[in-house]
Amino acid sequence: MKKYKVIGNPIEHSLSPTLHNYWIKNNGIDAIYEKQKLNENELEQIIDDIKEEKINGVNVTVPFKKKIIPFLDELSIEAETTQSVNTLYLKDNKVVGHNTDIIGFETSIEKSKYDVVNKKVLILGAGGVVPSIIFALNKMKVSKIRVSNRTKEKVQNLKKNFKNIELIEWGEIPNFDMIINATSIGLKEDDNIKLNFLSISGNRFFYDVIYNPSETNFLKTGKKLGNKTLNGKLMFIYQGLEAFNIWHGLKPDVDENVMKLLD
Ligand code: ATR
């Protein structure tokens, strides 16, 4: 039986095992997917386990997406550019780190039927997931990417790898077609981003990376003002689907049951 796992700290709330085990069962694959809470000093052991094929694939989550990099033999272009790795696999005896958050985000936009080409995008936050979102937006040919974060230095750091982004002071809301909440504000039901969207008319796209709760106050506000909204559930599902495809060589169905599994 093949073994897969997600590593992070904390890890209790990860829904990756639910998602992967559902697809494993549905496709009659002889495998199991588990979760493991680790400390940083255990990262090297995980890589050895992959080399020895004791584990066949690993998803990496917070806070190890960058910290895992020094232990890897090879990085995909996506992982290299974003300095963020969420999927590990063995290829020609080498442990490779890849980033499927990018395709997860991209596919979620495609599925939402929003035409992002030539659109002005404002990203709120500059944490771990933001490089992946910027990479995807550049690939999808948006016209402008602006990033606003409480701590300015993090945006300045992002600019080193993504020279085309523009820094916006926290609290300022320039005109945009699409706005993405990539902060952790909203994880708690009563969290509120203290920004004033009232001068923004409808026909914009409000996207929240958070999917639990399924509708943050940010999305509620967007909806109330007459805008299109989407939470991060599809992004999560499609990052998982791409990892599944890398490990098992098939793209599982995203049916109603999959959507319900994560509610
Ligand atoms: P990490 O930065 O460790 O990757 P994250 O959860 O991915 O963590 O990112 C949290 C994001 O939410 C950051 O952009 C953070 O802003 P700072 O860089 O200034 O910390 C943002 N964030 C969290 N709480 C916030 C708050 N109360 N007001 C504004 N931004 C907040």
Explain what this protein looks like in three dimensions.
With 263 residues, the protein is an alpha/beta fold. The protein has two domains: 125 residues, Rossmann fold, CATH 3.40.50; 118 residues, NAD(P)-binding Rossmann-like Domain (Rossmann fold, 3-Layer(aba) Sandwich). It contains nine helices and twelve strands. Strands 2-1-3-5-6-4 form a six-stranded mixed beta sheet. Helix 4 packs across helix 5. The longest helix has 16 residues. 40% of the residues are buried. The model has no long low-confidence stretch (mean pLDDT 97). Bound molecules: 2'-monophosphoadenosine-5'-diphosphate. 2'-monophosphoadenosine-5'-diphosphate binds next to loops.
Write the layout of secondary structure elements.
Blueprint: E1 2-8, H1 16-26, E2 31-37, H2 43-51, E3 57-60, E4 74-75, H3 77-82, E5 87-91, E6 94-98, H4 101-112, E7 120-124, H5 130-139, E8 144-148, H6 152-161, E9 166-168, E10 178-181, E11 205-208, H7 217-224, E12 228-230, H8 233-248, H9 256-261
Parallel strand pairs: 1-2, 1-3, 4-6, 7-8, 7-10, 8-9, 10-11, 11-12
Antiparallel strand pairs: 3-5, 5-6
Bound molecules: 2'-monophosphoadenosine-5'-diphosphate.
